[in-house]
Amino acid sequence: MDGEQAWTRYWRTGQQHSCFVAGAPFDTATVWSEFFDGAPAGASVLDLACGGGALTRIALGHPKGFSVTGVDFAEALAPVEGAVLMPRVRLEALPFEDGAFGVVISQFGLEYADADDSVAQAARVLAGGGLFGALIHHAEGELARAAEAGRVRLQRLTDADGPVAAAAELGAAMLRGESRPDLVSAIEQALRAESGRQQDQTTAWGLGFLAEIMAKRALFPPAYLAENAQTLMVELQGFETRIGQMVRAARSESDILKLCDRLETHGLSAHPPTLVRDLGGAAIAWFVRASR
């Protein structure tokens, strides 16, 4: 499953957030409050890689009455009342005229695109006197480390020789009238091994789903296990793809300084980047601001 498919599936479910800390969405409203306070009332705002609309909603909720357009490369987006959302738009090729927006923003999205082309496009569509702001994953932050650990846990489940693939193979064998006790034993062994390891919400859900369909496989027609194992594999691979992309997209301090240089190259005045931390003080993201 590629990134576009994985994110499309995710946003279609109605999810609004892609950044979670300790299992809960990371609240970014306070991060953006001062930024939006500095924008003119009624400004036209472009939300780059808007996804489920978390930042779009923050902008719409500001008392200055912004008009908000969101774009994302996903094939479909859940609607956000009061905003114009445009799927299938890549940040490297924005379909807008020069200087079309007074404010250009991005929350955990700009870093997924080509750095040179996306910054050039963001600068192109920003009007004179306009504001640019981007919240970007921190490569050395706690969130990136947790995401990488989660990706490794998911990979143990989704590998070709992992328990989910074995369940799908067992389901196919049952359709042929075969019992395959060797596969049953391998899956049960994997479930026992994983139960002794630390899990997150996603892998705990996946293991619970797998244990349930294995326990119920004899109660339903032979297709039950094969179909549910395939469904589980698709869902877990989607999670794994998104997490892997996030880990690769997270940026170091030197990356962020290069981004600021690119903004300057394209005629913007960049502010010194700032660190965004969680309530425990762990670094989560970079906040990059600039103006034309």
Please count the helical segments: 10
Multimeric state: single chain
Give average pLDDT, whole number. Answer: 90
* Cα Rg: 22 Å
Listing every helix as H and every strand as E from the N terminus to the C terminus, the arrangement reads: HEEHEHEEEHEHHHHHHEEE
Percentage of β-strand residues: 15-25%
The portion of residues assigned to helices is 40-55%
CA-to-CA gap between the ends?
39 Å
Q: What overall form do the CA principal axes indicate?
A: elongated
In short:
The chain is of the alpha/beta class. The chain has helices at residues 3-12, 29-37, 54-60, 115-124, 142-158, 163-175, 181-195, 201-216, 223-249, 253-265, and strands at 20-21, 24-25, 44-48, 67-71, 83-86, 101-107, 126-137, 269-270, 274-277, 283-291.
Fold and architecture overview:
Helix 5 packs antiparallel against helix 9 and helix 8 (201-216) runs antiparallel to helix 9 (223-249). Helices cover 47% and strands 18% of the residues. The longest helix is centred in the last third of the chain and has 27 residues, at 223-249. It is elongated. It is built from ten helices and ten strands. The model has no long low-confidence stretch (mean pLDDT 90). With 292 residues, it is an alpha/beta fold. Strands 3, 4, 5, 6, 7, 8, 9 and 10 form an eight-stranded mixed sheet that branches. It has a two-stranded antiparallel ribbon with strand order 1-2.
